Amino acid sequence: MQPAALLATVPASTAALIASARAAGVDAPVPSCEGWRTHDLVAHTAGVYRFVTAVLATGGPVSRKTLPSAPDGDEVFDDLAAASQAVIQAIEAAGPEGEAWNWAGEPPTAAFWHRRMAHEAAVHAVDAQLAAGHTPAMDPELAGDGIDELLTVLVPRFVAARTDGIDTLGTLHVHCTDTAGEWLVEPSGDTVSVRREHAKGDAALRGQALDLLLRLYNRSDGGDVVGDAGVMDRWRELVRF
């Protein structure tokens, strides 16, 4: 998906997050985020939005300790709505090619934040839906792009930060059935390579994009696993965010 199209999903995802979180109540547990209440989920998302807004304003990394905390109680919902508007305005002002630091070692343009905020909002909207007992929903194309970001940006950074690597994981082929998207994940020592192609791995994870995205984020057991089922068991143990 193009940066502008990704950023355009943030308002709807944030609205869905707020609606489900309100329905659940601020003290409801979030089953997909162990130990979190709904208030924690909403406050976290607002905090990320504030962080990115500050990064774009300053041009470099920002200490989150310097940023305002989320309010208590139901005021947290309006706080998230305001933080969402601010970050969207900041990203739009920068434009996809505008210079912008990021923590992932990706090209330092604001296109990174168009994509990251789209998936931050979308995945946490699902968390709120699960907290409220609602059926998770996400556009398949957005979910497929989320898988690509997870596998090609987040997972390699996570693996590089580990001290023991994830050699024991095995190779994994991921295949969406409701939108375009296939990947082969190959761990090696303290690195992992990801190729966007149809290829055989020790295991294959196949299904609708949202089911695969939530499985890879360790939020569900969706999708069908073919081959070595232990690969996905090890994924849950080794790949934690």
The CATH topology of the largest domain = Four Helix Bundle (Hemerythrin (Met), subunit A)
- Tell me the number of strands: 5
Mean pLDDT: 94
- Uncertain runs with pLDDT below 50, 5 residues or more? none
Oligomeric grouping of the chains: single chain
Total helical elements: 8
Cα distance spanning the termini: 24 Å
Q: What level of helicity do the residues show?
A: 40-55%
Lateral arrangement of strands in the main beta sheet: 3-2-1-4-5
Largest sheet: 5 strands, mixed
Shape: globular
Class by alpha and beta content: alpha+beta
Element order: H for helix, E for strand: HHHHHHEEEEHEH
Number of domains: 2
CATH architecture of the largest domain: Up-down Bundle
Rounded to the nearest angstrom, the radius of gyration is 18 Å
**CATH class identity of the largest domain:** Mainly Alpha
- Beta-strand share of residues: 5-15%
Secondary structure blueprint with pairings:
Elements lengths: L2 H5 L2 H15 L13 H21 L16 H20 L16 H21 L8 H22 L10 E5 L5 E7 L2 E5 L7 E5 L1 H8 L7 E4 L2 H9 L3
Parallel strand pairs: 1-4
Antiparallel strand pairs: 1-2, 2-3, 4-5
Helix pairs in contact: 2-4, 2-5, 3-4, 3-5, 5-6, 6-7
